């Protein structure tokens, strides 16, 4: 955990057609408003170019987000707090985010991910597309890192509207429905909560 100054948060995500990106942007803005220094980062794309080109929504999103920097291990090392987001793929995080996670061995081996405050968010195409299992799968990584998992729980009234105490989530109905006010408010609350817990943890440790 970084010493001195505001909480540093890295919002690291993967998004194919833009749903998770919208949630990530809202989280980053909310974290900044809560006093954090924020890095919004996407993970690298793994799909073949011809597959992306064949999907209009996918190729449009790739072109629209070329300005977003790709995540590196340095972003994880820099951060006090982490918010990871990915769409569900068969009830698990998309391979692109998992591939990035699988590169973190050097940081894990050096104990540099211990005590970072961490949380996760997701989206799926269908109402029962594995949102909770995807969030739990991402949280499994945090256990191995020795991170401090910060769930949103039902600590804000918006959680009773969205109904997911594990992390913010959205059902896009095959990409046709963008996140609405309730879903954006839920991920904003989640980001603020992670920042607040990280701030309290830093104060308690005198760092």
TrEMBL record:
GO terms for cellular component: membrane. It holds the Pfam family FMN_red. It comes from the Bacteria. GO terms for molecular function: FMN binding; NAD(P)H dehydrogenase (quinone) activity. Residues 9-194 form the Flavodoxin-like domain. Belongs to the WrbA family. PANTHER family: FLAVODOXIN-RELATED PROTEIN WRBA-RELATED, FLAVOPROTEIN-LIKE PROTEIN YCP4-RELATED. This is NAD(P)H dehydrogenase (Quinone). It comes from Thermomonospora umbrina.
